[in-house]
Specification:
The complex is a heterodimer of chains A (about 550) and B (about 325). Chain A is α+β, with helices and mostly antiparallel strands. Chain A folds into two domains: about 200 residues, Dipeptide-binding Protein, domain 1 (Alpha-Beta Complex); about 210 residues, Dipeptide-binding Protein, Domain 3 (Dipeptide-binding Protein, domain 3). In chain A, strands 12, 13, 14, 15, 16, 17, 18 and 19 form an eight-stranded mixed sheet that branches. In chain A, strands 2-11-10-9 form a four-stranded mixed sheet, covered by helices on one side. Chain A has a four-stranded antiparallel sheet with strand order 5-6-8-7, with helices on one face. The longest helix of chain A has 18 residues. The two termini of chain A are about 40 Å apart. The relative contact order of chain A is 0.18. With about 325 residues, chain B is mainly α. Chain B starts with a helix and ends in a 5-residue tail after the last helix. In chain B, helix 2 crosses helix 12, helix 4 runs parallel beside helix 7 and helix 4 runs parallel beside helix 12. Chain B has one domain: Orthogonal Bundle (MetI-like fold), CATH 1.10.3720. Classes of the chains: A alpha+beta (about 550), B mainly alpha (about 325). The interface between A and B is medium-sized, with 29 and 24 residues.
Amino acid sequence: MRGRTRAMAAAAFTSIALVATACGGGGTPSTSNSTGGQAGAEITIRGCTPTAPLIPGNTTEVCGGNVIDAMAAKLVHYDPKTAAPTNDIAESIESNDNQNFTVKLKPGYKFHDGTQVKAKNFVDAWNWVAYAPNGQANSYFFAPIAGYGDVQCPDEECKQKPKAEKMSGLKVVDDTTFTIKTTEPVSNLPLRLGYTAFAPLPDSFFADPKAFEDKPIGAGPFQLQSKTTTEIVLTKFADYAGEFKPNVDKVTFRIYTDDAAAYADLVSGQLDFTDHIPTDQLVGEAYKNDLPDRNSITEGGRFTYLTFSPNDPQLKNNVALRKALSRAIDRDLIAKQIFNGTVIPATGWVSPSVDGYKPDTCGESCKFDAAAAKQAFEAAGGYDGTLTMTYNADTAGNKEYSEAVCNSIKNAVGVNCVASPVVDFATYNKKLDDNSLKGLLRTGWQMDYPSIENFLTPIYAKGADSNYSHYDNPEFTKLINQAAAAKTTDAANVLYQQAEALLARDMPTAPLWYPSTVSGWSEKVTDVTVTAFGTLDLIGIKTK
Amino acid sequence: MTEPLTAQEVSGAAGALVPATRAADEGRSLWSDAWADLRRNPFFWVSAVLIAVFLVMAAFPQLFTSTDPYFADLAHAREKPSAEAWFGYDGQGHDVYARTIYGARSSILVGVFATLFTLVIGSLFGILAGYSGGSLDALLSRLGDIFFAIPLLLGGILILYTFPSDLETPYLVVVGKVVLALGLLGWPNIARLMRSSVLQVKPNDYVQAARALGASPGRIILSHILPNSLAAVIVVSTINLGAYIAAEATLSYLGIGLQPPAISWGLAISEASGIGLIRAAPHMLLFPSIFLSLTVLAFIMLGDAVRDALDPKLR
């Protein structure tokens, strides 16, 4: 979660990060048998530079994730609107005890190089990504699988080889069947399998991973035609056997480093879609004049919150103070004035877009009341010195809302609060890791898969990668373990909601808001859907 | 060319009243001549008044506004100018008028200190090089060439990126870093000018006479060379002051000069300059820009006026 989380955090304001979490995998070395790309419907959409080679297991951010998602087919497909999972490559995923799963594949799926998608393509791919010496950023997604511990390095630098090369929990039964055994019961495992880290890899990948990086191959509806530093071109894969067939023949991801440039191209008709409307265009809804009826605001699985630094002695053991500070933030006003209504003030720790969401978990701690906040602040002993709110300055919008949060706290309770920039996301992450930051920390989350669990376990479980608040509550741990083992999703959700309620009691972080993805498109395209992950649905989009 | 000179001779004679404040003296120095000239130049008065206003603004901003520039009411964000807020409100709901008034201090501090820095270092090196000549001259001149080759903004970005400031950095240290960066890259300009002036003055008879009388090099420099070679340097420094203020705004605009919570025009312009914001709230950009332009203009106009006065031949 960490890689992604942080990617997310960086992207939290601009909707970029959405897919990052959800990036899929599956590269496509386009081979000579490629069939896509006849003259036909072509679209050009905004892209950005992938930070890693286009390997599903190593892509944790949206720039590469958007491309991989289009190229890779996975066991499960998420509905563009609701994110509800439906089977894609999987014929069925069955389990009696939420611990032993049997996965049956639909026959007929092919990789872009013409080879069949078989059970062993999944098992080999997962083992390869999980195997620590391969250094794949998405390795932690396989942690629930039995034997994951054995493929991890015994020491930090990985000088010694892990005990095993393969996870004992994965077994190929035949070409279209394999089994998964998890160490603990995981009730939502099938739901997670649509994430890109779980994409299959073709045999040719294992023969030469380096060559694969140049020509990634997947089993998805699009295959890679060309890849340069300025654009990535995908064409329709004619042999795609799944039911999610695209309406366009060619998609070009044009790489921009500047949201404003992409926006200008969109307005002038040079670009067909962008999911990054520059923040200054949100003011006064300038973009709605430029793009009448060609814009959308999509709520998705994103969440922006404030982490109270566990390294700050004044905040660390003072729940009342944390609640008072949370209460001093005028979320409604910030949503209106800074975001022009494109974010929804949060009332809990879980995005409304996932199953299991329960409104108003946070209660009065998330409702702005300057007088009550001041009273509670003083009763809690106040805060000596200057309170800082640290943010990474390389993402548009972070500065504006961090300052606004600080001003709100300052005006309400009278403590001097200053927004403190850190030059870029990488530096910010480093500082989060070495525990050198005090005060309030800007943090964001982009869901990996549509589940309430994804908003709780990775952020508040003891020792979790993204647990920046160092939250450690045995009661919480017990509840999420019980929930994971629950027989039904509903039963699990109730337990997860109970765990979430503990957050309202302990206030390790303060919910801020649920960001939306603000996007715009050209006159050329129609049927534009922005998914619950905040990305463009490439399957549904059509040209006029 | 001769006319102004004669005119001055005449006015000097006729206007004996003017220098009356000075001790009844032997005649008029270059400086009193220049002062007489300056007083008749309307540009001088316009720029002097502007500069005086900005200096007072920098020293005592509370004379101009009673609003706390750090107080922000988000409910008023981006409101247009009104009776309550003459210049409107910015994106966070700060009063733009108060922010603009308080922003003068950073610009003036950076401008004045960067100029003083270059003036002192540049003059010192220029005089040493010009007066001593030989290997010291070669050494100092080449040293100057090295810094001269680095463009001001590029070098400034490099230096400030290498020594970034954060919230804990005291205000004066942040300003000091910008001053140092600009000064370090600006002094060769002054040093070259000083050196050539010194070379011009050095062969003059009065210098030779002083030397023949046994005056020490220090005395010759201080009493004879420095006063007679300072004119050009002062002119260029005054003009540079405006340029440094603009450079500070540029660096702050790029996010590496002054850092919030410091208030500066460059920062204000940076925050207000998104295309969408310019459309929605142009006043956020307009007022700090006007003040910045006026300050730079005032110093450059003053420099021009002083040059005209000190060196009538250039007119």
